[in-house]
Structure formats: C-alpha cells, structure tokens
Write a structure and sequence with these properties.
The protein has 72 residues and is mainly alpha-helical. The chain has one domain: Alpha Horseshoe (Serine Threonine Protein Phosphatase 5, Tetratricopeptide repeat). 79% of the residues lie in helices and 0% in strands. The longest helix is centred in the first third of the chain and has 17 residues. Belongs to the cytochrome c oxidase subunit 5A family. One of its GO terms (molecular function) is metal ion binding. It is found in: Mitochondrion inner membrane.
Length: 72
C-alpha cells in the first residue's frame, strides 16, 4: 500500500467509527498493516487513532498505538 492508501483508509475508518459501524478489529488491522509496511504515521493520524481508541473505549488498543509509535 502507498501512503495515500493509509490516509484514505484512516479517514474511512474514522467515518465508520463516527457512525458506529466500525470496531476494534478494523483499527487493529489498519495498525498491523501500517507496521508491516514500515509506514510512519503523522501527528494527525496518531491523533485520529487515539481518538478512535477513545470512542471505542479500548485502552489496550491505545497502548498498542503508543507502542507502535514509540518503536518507529
């Protein structure tokens, strides 16, 4: 995947979370794909990921996002 694909996937995921259709699985899948491709998310993407974790009320996923950013 290219950088723009991740940005689009992140925007689509945020729309799904806002509408209540997405769950933690899709967020984990996106994060795993980003890590596997050595993609470094920007500050806006990190903010969106953390907001998504908050909306889903998933603390363990928030920790996973922070660890992924730390390792990058």
């Amino acid at each position: 995947m290219y950088c723009s694909s991740y940005l689009q996937a992140n925007k689509d995921l945020m729309k799904q979370i806002d509408s209540g259709k997405a769950d933690g699985y899709e967020l984990r899948k996106l994060l795993t794909e980003m890590q596997g491709a050595d993609y470094i998310p920007g500050s806006e993407e990190i903010e969106n990921l953390m907001n998504a974790c908050r909306k889903l009320n998933d603390f363990s996923l928030a920790v996973r996002v922070l660890e992924a950013v730390k390792w990058k």
